[in-house]
C-alpha cells in the first residue's frame, strides 16, 4: 500500500501515483521549490523588478534612457545577473537577456540579447 508523500493518506489509483490529490501534489511541490530563505527571495524579487523595468523601457531591443528615469521606476543598480566586457572595453550589466551600459551625462544604453 502506497501513501501520499504530502499527507500520508492511502493512495488509490495508478501504480506510479505519488499523491492522493492535486492539492497535495501542489503543496508538496511548492514546499520543495520555494526559496529557502528570505534573503534569496528578496534578491530574486529585486532581479525580477529590475528585469521588468528594463523590459518596459526597452521595447525595441535597443534604446536610451536616463538614470533618473530608472531610479524613478525603482531600479536597483546593485542587482544584476552578469557582466559582459566587450573587446572594445565597454561594460554591459545584464539581467538575463536585458542589459544596460553606462553612457556619459547619466544616460544609459539599454540592449536585449538575442537568445
Please tell me about this protein's structure.
It is a single chain. Helices cover 33% and strands 22% of the residues. It has 115 residues and is α+β, with helices and mostly antiparallel strands. The chain has one domain (22-112). A hairpin with a 4-residue loop joins strand 4 and strand 5 (107-112). The relative contact order is 0.13. The model has no long low-confidence stretch (mean pLDDT 93). This is DUF2116 family Zn-ribbon domain-containing protein.
Q: Compute the gyration radius: what is it? A: 22 Å
How many β-strands, per DSSP? 5
Low-confidence stretches: none
Strand and helix order: HHEHEEEE
Report the portion of residues in β strands.
Answer: 15-25%
End-to-end gap: 48 Å
Strand order of the biggest β-sheet? 1-5-4-3-2
Count of individual domains: 1
State the helicity in percent bands.
25-40%
User: Structural class given helices, strands, pairing?
Assistant: alpha+beta
Mean pLDDT: 93
Shape: elongated
Tally of helical runs? 3
Largest sheet: 5 strands, antiparallel
Task: Provide a concise account of the structure shown.
Helix content is 33%, strand content 22%. It is built from 3 helices and 5 strands; from the N terminus they run ααβαββββ.
Fill in the keyword field for this structure.
115 residues; alpha+beta; five-stranded antiparallel sheet; 5 strands; elongated; DUF2116 family Zn-ribbon domain-containing protein
Amino acid at each position: 500500500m502506497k501513501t501520499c508523500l504530502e499527507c500520508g493518506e492511502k493512495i488509490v489509483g495508478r501504480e506510479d501515483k505519488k499523491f492522493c490529490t492535486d492539492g497535495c501534489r501542489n503543496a508538496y511541490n511548492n514546499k520543495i521549490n520555494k526559496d529557502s530563505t528570505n534573503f534569496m527571495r528578496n534578491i530574486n524579487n529585486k532581479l525580477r523588478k529590475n528585469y521588468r523595468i528594463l523590459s518596459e523601457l526597452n521595447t525595441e531591443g535597443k534604446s536610451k534612457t536616463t538614470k533618473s528615469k530608472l531610479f524613478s521606476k525603482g531600479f536597483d543598480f546593485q542587482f544584476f545577473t552578469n557582466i559582459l566586457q566587450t573587446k572594445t572595453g565597454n561594460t554591459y550589466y545584464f539581467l538575463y537577456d536585458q542589459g544596460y551600459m553606462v553612457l556619459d551625462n547619466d544616460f544609459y544604453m539599454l540592449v536585449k540579447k538575442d537568445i
